[in-house]
Automatic annotation (TrEMBL):
The keyword Glycoprotein appears for this protein: no
UniProt GO BP: tRNA N2-guanine methylation
Protein name (record): tRNA (guanine(26)-N(2))-dimethyltransferase
Family: Belongs to the class I-like SAM-binding methyltransferase superfamily. Trm1 family.
Enzyme class: transferase
Chain sites annotated for binding Zn(2+): C244, C247, C261, C264
GO molecular function, one term: metal ion binding
């Protein structure tokens, strides 16, 4: 394997030379013998920030590939006493060995199936960054995290989570669903609900502390606490969203029902089981905000700053976002600017999920009134 050296954050990393694996001038990171995707840099940058808030003494990077995540946590956050970098691909662990030597990092390297490893070792922070769905690794990672420790999942299978593919939504996440106008937020809530149910099996409660959508993936971080009662409490905050495909009216309910729109009388679309609670723990996000100053060297510093700004604003609202363009089209009106709608509603904000959306604690009728007022 021909290697090239790249720099990410404060780590110098050897990765396979993309030139060697190009097909017709194109390159996909999955074509190389060891995976490294520069498009995931923002995911890793934010994860470094998150780990700096958690300050874990032990970390398992269970699907490590080049070792980049674990290396960055060790070097850029510090205070890590036990670092396990694992990948079932022996070419990956051979490369990880080179990369830890290069960066003078002390780590245990294992070439194991992540699931069997995670039933044998424990850590304060467990990172699951798979190809596609994290579902096959949820139970084992929750098992592996110590009480009050944290686990983070990446999911790139948005077609399942957003319910573009109903059958994979059902298979991977137990979802009975249709694609809703706020599918980007529904998807992350479907993933969170799945993690909460899997944790409940182990009598653990997985509290979502930070979630975001970017580019083509979700990243969700949970604090995991032991206790059957706590797990029951979280389970009771799952439910189903309903949305009318004609007027946009939405409802949420604990149960799966065949609902008709009270205005139009037609079948409503549905999505669930989904987490209906908050996506962000206020305290956690504020700590991220404070810590960000330590990471002004990151290429994505300004993007993260902006993302956190928006998330702090939208975290006041648990209701899924409204698509202003879609509601305007139902009303046969022009699309008013988001800022004007937000001002008109009084309590509302932009959302990072969709530049066409707004979040608010107001009902659809009030949003519609504002659209009408602004386009009359
Ligand atoms: C998306 S890549 C990880 C990327 C890496 N975390 C990063 O940020 O660059 C997923 C990795 O998981 C490994 N993998 C897939 N299934 C696995 C399993 N069951 N046990 C251990 N490793 C596995 C693959 O070999 C691959 O290297
Ligand atoms: Zn309707």
């Amino acid at each position: 394997m021909n290697l090239i050296e790249i720099k990410e954050g404060k780590v110098s990393l050897l990765v396979p030379n993309p030139k060697d694996y190009e097909k017709n001038g194109k390159f996909d990171p999955s074509w190389a013998p060891v995976f490294y995707n520069p498009r995931m840099k923002l995911n890793r940058d934010i994860s470094v920030l998150i780990v700096s808030v958690i300050k874990p003494k032990s970390i398992i990077d269970a699907l490590s590939a080049s070792g980049i995540r674990g290396l960055r946590y060790y070097i850029e956050v510090g205070g890590v006493e036990k670092l396990i970098l694992n990948d079932k691909n022996p070419l990956a662990t051979e490369l990880i060995r080179k990369n830890i030597e290069k960066n003078k990092v002390e780590a245990q390297i294992t070439t194991r199936d992540a699931n069997s490893l995670l039933y044998e070792v424990k850590a304060e922070f467990v990172d699951i960054d798979p190809f596609g769905s994290p579902s096959p690794f949820i139970l084992s990672s929750i098992n592996s995290v110590i009480n009050k420790g944290y686990v983070a999942f990446t999911a790139t299978d948005l077609s399942a989570l957003e319910c573009s593919s109903k059958s994979s939504a059902r298979r991977k996440y137990d979802l009975i669903c249709d694609k809703l106008s706020f599918s980007k937020e529904a998807g992350i809530r479907g993933l969170i609900a799945k993690v909460i149910r899997e944790s409940a099996i182990l009598e653990k409660a997985a509290y979502p502390v930070f979630s975001f959508y970017f580019d083509y993936y979700y990243r969700v971080v949970f604090r995991v606490e032991s206790g059957a009662k706590k797990a029951d409490n979280l389970l009771s905050k799952q439910g189903y969203y309903y949305e009318c495909p004609k007027c946009g009216l939405r409802e949420a309910s604990e149960y799966l029902e065949k609902k008709k729109c009270p205005k139009c009388g037609i079948d409503m679309k549905k999505y669930g089981p989904a987490w209906l609670g908050t996506l962000w723990e206020k305290d956690f996000v504020e700590k991220m905000r404070d810590k960000l100053n330590d990471f002004s060297y990151l290429d994505n510093y300004f993007t993260i700053n902006k993302l956190l700004d928006i998330i702090i604003k939208e975290s006041k609202y648990d209701n899924p976002y409204y698509r202003i363009d879609i509601l305007s089209s139902y009303l046969k009106r022009n699309i008013p600017k988001r800022e004007y709608i937000i001002k008109c509603l009084g309590s509302a904000s932009v959302t990072h999920f969709d530049y066409r959306g707004i979040k608010s604690d107001k009902g659809m009728d009030e949003v519609n009134e504002c659209i009408k007022k602004l386009t009359s």
